[in-house]
Design brief:
nucleotide-binding, 7-stranded mixed beta sheet, globular, 17 helices, alpha/beta, 15% strand, glycerone kinase activity, DhaK_dom, ATP binding, 6-stranded mixed beta sheet, 557 residues
Length: 557
């Protein structure tokens, strides 16, 4: 469990603040994460790993020469927002472009993708390298999660940028490293969020979860726990079976602890892993054993192998000097200068009509009603999500609605009309909640707000805009076991009935998702476990629809 915190809700921010204070000579905090204290004297590509917090030293622990120029840091196990990514990128950019790198999780893909679009619109070249090293999570490599192999990809890209490669070349070597990287892991016990009284998942006595995820997801299946030598043999066999076609015999190897496995235990396992890899005809190049990508206090371990060619080996062995990882000696750039503060302009709202101002007040009250409902359901939503996910859905939804209400109140006090109030709420929901649900709800509310504008609310048109934006951004369809399974029936019933009838249709549809097998999102690798449990996104959407329905009913009395 996590023993030290002040407010569990701000644990990630507090940890980042402490890290930046400790390493104030080399890093500095910016909105959304941290960057190097100084920028290079010549333009270089900014390598920016990112993702949710709870994985230290990933991601901000590897900021420094030879590795990352900054890191985008979300809430615990939750994707950072697009706004966070843009903020860090603008602070780290020195004129040669930026490249985001992150694991293959829906929220990260959406948020970093949106950030890339925004940066390009501002004239900053931006690219993405998605890590897909987890061989247990899917048959097709493009659908696999990114876990400890993140580190190898970050290291190669950081060295390439330090050498002076341009953006296209840094992206090329990053993707080549990812294509050559394979990881398998096992969990012996789950991790526990700060303030929580139980872990996100448990493993039966005498067993281990094979194929863990680093967001607190349980293993894909429970198998009997074995001696270290047998686990080593299983890991090596599974990884070598995935050796890329045409790969050589020189490999970078990471034996990674997930949070609670002691170094001495890792050394025991390493003795067998290293022997088996050498017996298979491979040469180990600067292997690493320790904690590189953790999952809070999860008791687990993973093995990562990257097959090297001459270029990848040069970049893997290049010097790096960061708070959490140091290799060789690296010269300081004597021409470095302080990084300037980068902040976004405060929002400005168009003048609103008196009628729109009155409607804006009703929108704000409706959001407050949703906030009350989500706060009451936080634990329930988290428990549903923990069955086949990481258990953060309830907390993420509460963070999102809290931020949305705060932003809506500020917009209302600045004279905003109904559409601008709703759009401001959506922007802040996406910025503060992070993750898949955060970006979807944020983008959907903004789309609804843009349709409303300064006019009277057309509920059907607003919901249509919300649905179209959510479905186009997330790519989900009915039957995928996502919030779309409740959204589509809600939308269809609203077109011919009342809001209360539409809310009832959403609730019925959310319950039916218990029978579905997920085809998207974090629950997909644990598809069998999710059968019998409704989708948390569908449940929370139905809950919100019901809260709005009850608010509307109270308002007509």
């Amino acid at each position: 469990m996590t023993y030290l915190s002040n407010d569990p809700a701000t644990f990630a921010e507090d940890a980042l603040a402490g890290f930046c204070e400790l390493h104030a000579d080399t890093v500095r905090r910016v909105p959304g994460g941290a960057v190097r204290r100084s920028r290079p004297s010549r333009p270089k590509v900014a390598v920016l790993p990112g993702g949710g917090s709870g994985h230290y030293p990933a991601f901000y622990g590897v900021i420094g020469p030879g590795l990352a120029d900054g890191a985008v840091s979300g809430n615990l196990f939750t994707s950072p927002s697009a706004q966070d990514a843009v903020s860090v990128a603008r602070a780290a950019h020195s004129g040669a472009g930026v490249v985001f790198s992150y694991g293959n999780y829906a929220g990260d893909v959406m948020n970093f993708g949106l950030a890339t679009e925004r940066l390009r619109a501002q004239g900053i070249r931006a690219e993405n390298v998605v890590v897909t090293d987890d061989i247990a999570s899917a048959e097709r490599p493009a659908e696999r999660r990114g876990i400890a192999g993140d580190f190898t990809v970050f290291k190669v890209m950081g060295a390439a940028a330090e050498e002076g490669m341009d953006l296209d070349e840094v992206v090329r070597v990053g993707r080549k490293a990812n294509d050559a990287t394979r990881t398998i892991g096992a969990a012996f016990a789950g991790c526990t969020f700060p303030g929580a009284d139980a872990p996100l998942f448990t493993v039966p006595d005498g067993h281990m979860g094979l194929g863990l995820g680093i967001h607190g997801e349980p293993g894909l299946r429970d198998v009997p726990r074995t001696a270290a030598r047998e686990l080593a043999a299983d890991f090596v066999r599974r990884v070598l079976a995935e050796k890329p076609a045409g790969a050589g015999d020189r490999i970078a190897v990471l034996l990674n602890g997930l949070g609670s496995v002691k170094h001495e235990e890792l050394f025991v396992l390493w003795a067998d892993v290293s022997r088996l890899l050498r017996e298979s005809g491979h040469t180990l190049v600067l292997p690493e054993v320790g904690e590189l990508v953790t999952s809070l206090d999860m008791a687990g371990v993973s093995l990562t192998v990257t097959w090297l060619d001459d270029e990848l080996e040069r970049l893997w062995t290049a010097p790096a000097w960061t708070p959490a990882f140091r290799r060789g000696a690296i010269a300081a750039d004597s021409g470095e200068e302080a990084v300037a503060e980068v902040t976004d302009d405060a929002p400005r709202f168009a003048e609103a009509s008196a009628e729109s101002r009155q409607v804006a007040g009703a929108v704000l009250d409706g959001l407050r009603a949703v906030r009350k409902a989500l706060r009451e359901a936080e634990s329930e939503l988290g428990a549903i999500d923990a069955v086949a996910g990481d258990g953060d859905h309830g907390r993420g939804m509460v963070r999102g609605i809290d931020a949305a209400v705060t932003a809506a109140e500020a917009a209302w006090h600045q004279g905003a009309g109904a559409g601008d109030v709703l759009a401001a709420a959506g922007d802040e929901w996406a910025a503060r909640a992070g993750g898949t649900s955060g970006v979807l709800w944020g983008a959907g509310l903004r789309a609804a707000g843009e349709v409303i504008g300064d006019g009277v609310i057309d509920a059907v048109a607003a919901v249509d805009a919300f649905a179209e934006r959510v479905m186009s951004l997330g790519g989900a369809e009915p039957g995928d076991k996502t919030l779309v399974d409740a959204l589509v029936p809600f939308r269809e019933r609203l077109a011919s009935g009342t809001w209360a009838q539409a809310a009832a249709a959403a609730e019925d549809a959310a319950r039916v998702t218990a029978d579905l097998v997920p085809r998207k999102g974090r629950a997909r690798p644990l598809a069998e476990r999710s059968v019998g449990t409704p989708d948390p996104g569908a449940v929370s959407l139905a809950l919100i629809a019901r809260a709005v329905s009850e608010y509307l009913r109270e308002g007509t009395r």
